[in-house]
TrEMBL record:
The keyword Cell cycle belongs to this UniProt entry's keyword annotation: yes
Catalytic activity: UDP-N-acetyl-alpha-D-muramate + NADP(+) = UDP-N-acetyl-3-O-(1-carboxyvinyl)-alpha-D-glucosamine + NADPH + H(+)
A single GO cellular-component term on record: cytosol
EC number: 1.3.1.98
Organism: freshwater metagenome
Record InterPro entries: FAD-bd_PCMH (IPR016166), FAD-bd_PCMH-like_sf (IPR036318), FAD-bd_PCMH_sub1 (IPR016167), FAD-bd_PCMH_sub2 (IPR016169), MurB (IPR003170), MurB_C (IPR011601), MurB_C_sf (IPR036635), Oxid_FAD_bind_N (IPR006094)
Domain FAD-binding PCMH-type residue range list: 12-181
Protein name according to UniProt: UDP-N-acetylmuramate dehydrogenase
Length: 344
């Protein structure tokens, strides 16, 4: 049986009790209910890009989601796409851009599968899944029933949802609403993308140009999976950008990158976790003595496996980063990946 390090982008994790590959929605539902009936530990595995496993996972049963298919319904100026959970997220973005549909172009290059996307409300460069999300089919662990979850049920937040906060189960498909703007993007809400395209915030530009620009920016940070780039052996951003009160933010240096929080209430501010990490004395490429886990040489927010690292070494470095940032700024950085078999 494969070790989980062979199925995850961080390349850590031991051999589980079982791995069941589910290639259809019906098979996924059937196998999940079978495992749940035993009361044993389990996890759903999509792209494996947001998971850090311990070496000892011998009691864990893995449901590997390999479902595929997209159903498309045309409406006036819009399309509703129903996407099976196992479809790759960037595969979906590429298809939407090719179809001339706007809504998710700014989230190009995000690894993982569509079924995992609502769990942490993925987002980048001014767009979030919640902007286009309509509903999802969810196999509820507590009841064993299939239910439809709408945005109000998922209670989306910044890299957060009701599922991430403890509603246990498996998403089988999601529905998104995409907009036909005749090949143009949604209004730009990322200064980085606007600058890269010599445009302005709020302007519409070519969908292809936005996707190409996002992929270029992500690759420069090691945030696009690439077998030739050792900095992509990671989970991408390891910590979420902390949201603090506006009064607290004013105690941080004016040089610190700061943005309005999602609520945009004027009372809270989002800070750059990467900036906090570097200002706490942890630079790009940093590694603890004797460890094969390191900070990416391209981006301070990513922890990478230099080769042969264990999940415990990844977690050890993450804890060290948290301690240094907390000591200097009084801020607790929250991990973005799911940590299986240990805690940070």
């Amino acid at each position: 049986m494969q070790a989980l390090k062979e199925l995850t982008s961080m390349r850590v994790g031991g051999v589980p009790a079982s791995i069941t590959v589910c290639s259809t929605r019906e098979q996924l539902i059937e196998k999940a209910q079978e495992i749940w009936s035993t009361g044993e530990d389990w996890i759903a595995l999509g792209g494996g890009t947001n998971l850090v496993f311990a070496e000892d996972v011998s009691n864990l049963h893995v449901l590997q989601i390999k479902t595929s298919g997209i159903e498309k319904t045309k409406l006036d100026g819009k399309q509703v796409w129903k996407i099976q959970a196992g479809v790759g997220w960037d595969e979906l973005v590429a298809e939407s851009v090719a179809a001339g549909l706007a809504g998710i172009e700014g989230m190009s290059g995000i690894p993982g599968t569509c079924g995992a996307a609502p769990v942490q409300n993925i987002g980048a460069y001014g767009q979030e899944l919640s902007d286009v999300f309509l509903r999802a089919e969810f196999l509820d662990y507590e009841s064993g029933e299939l239910v439809i979850l709408e945005p109000r049920d998922l209670k989306f937040g910044y890299r957060d949802s009701a599922i991430k906060r403890g509603r246990t189960g498996i998403i089988t498909w999601i529905e998104l609403e995409l907009i036909d703007l005749e090949g143009l993007s949604r209004p730009l809400y990322s200064g980085q993308i606007a600058g890269a395209l010599n445009s302005e915030m709020g302007k519409h530009v070519s969908l292809k140009d936005v996707r190409d620009s996002v992929l270029k920016l992500r690759a420069a940070k090691g945030m696009v999976l690439d077998p030739q780039d050792p900095n992509s052996v990671s989970c991408g951003s390891f910590f979420t950008n902390p949201i603090v009160s506006d009064s607290f933010a004013r105690t941080i240096s004016d040089e610190a990158p700061k943005w309005e929080s999602q609520e945009d209430d004027g009372l809270t501010v989002k800070l750059s976790a990467a900036w906090l990490i570097e200002q706490a004395g942890i630079g790009k490429g940093f590694s603890l003595p004797g460890s094969n886990a390191a900070i990416s040489s391209k981006h301070a927010l990513a922890i990478v496996n230099k080769g042969g690292a264990t999940g415990e070494q990844i977690a050890e470095l993450a804890r060290y980063i948290q301690e240094r940032v907390a000591a200097k700024f009084g801020i607790n950085l929250v991990p973005e990946p799911n940590l299986i078999g240990f805690s940070v």
